[in-house]
Automatic annotation (TrEMBL):
Electron transport system for the ribonucleotide reductase system NrdEF. Coiled coil: none annotated. This is Glutaredoxin-like protein NrdH. The keyword Disulfide bond applies. It comes from Streptococcus panodentis. CDD domains: NrdH. Belongs to the ArsC family. Keywords: Disulfide bond, Electron transport, Redox-active center, Transport.
């Protein structure tokens, strides 16, 4: 399962979710503005900016269509 850690008013978050929706990739979204208890988890992964995309084998940050395409 793909998990996206997003924030409100985040353009790259919206682009990432749109890309995954268009490519029929199922994901769980955790909004860090609404669920701040996950912020430490994201920081422990080594990231400070949203979106953070986490899979069973990797995590990466930002809108990265090349990596996102591999999830479909």
């Amino acid at each position: 399962m793909v998990t996206i850690y997003s924030k409100n008013d985040c353009v790259q978050c919206k682009m990432t979710k749109r890309f995954l929706d268009t490519n029929h990739v199922e994901y769980r979204e955790i909004n860090l503005d609404e669920q701040p208890e996950f912020i430490d988890h994201v920081k422990n992964l080594g990231f400070n900016a949203a979106p953070v995309i986490q899979t069973a084998t990797e995590a990466f940050s930002g809108f990265q269509p090349g990596k996102l395409k591999k999830l479909s």
